[in-house]
Amino acid sequence: MTISYFGPQEPSKSLFYEQLVDNPPPIISIDTETISLKDRLPIGFSIAVNPYEAWWFNSYPEADLEIQMLVGLLTNPAIKKVYANAMFDMRMQPLIFS
To answer: What gap in Å lies between CA 41 and CA 92, rounded to an integer?
Structure first.
């Protein structure tokens, strides 16, 4: 597992599955980072599951394998998504998940 976890718990695959795959929260926050505003190649993104816990996923130079497991989370209409910059972040998602 190459992704990063920020929070009070010990990072593990079981925590990843619990928070983002098997039992996701009703609201998540998403923020995409790019090389620059000029070069809009996404280098990664974060998903916060609550005010104290977040996950970071690399998408460049190599995408983390766990990214494909997030498609269900991001396409689930029952989960509300809060974006740092919705128009920008949503435009970057196809580049990350392609």
So the answer is: 8
Residue at token pair 């593990």: 12
At CA 66, angle to CA 31 and CA 91, rounded to 5? 35
| CB of 69 closer than 8 Å to CB of 21 | yes
Rounded distance between C-alpha atoms, residue 71 and residue 97, angstroms? 8
Output the pTM of the full model.
Answer: 0.92
* Residues 73-86: tens digit of each pLDDT: 999 999 999 999 99
DSSP string, 6-72: ESSSPP-HHHHIIIIIIS--SEEEEEEEES-SSS--EEEEEEEEETTEEEEEE-SSS--GGGGGGHH
Are 56 and 48 spatial neighbours (Cβ–Cβ below 8 Å)? no
Burial track 36-68 (b if 16+ CB lie within 10 A, e otherwise): eeeeeebebbbbbbeeebbbbbbbeeebbebbe
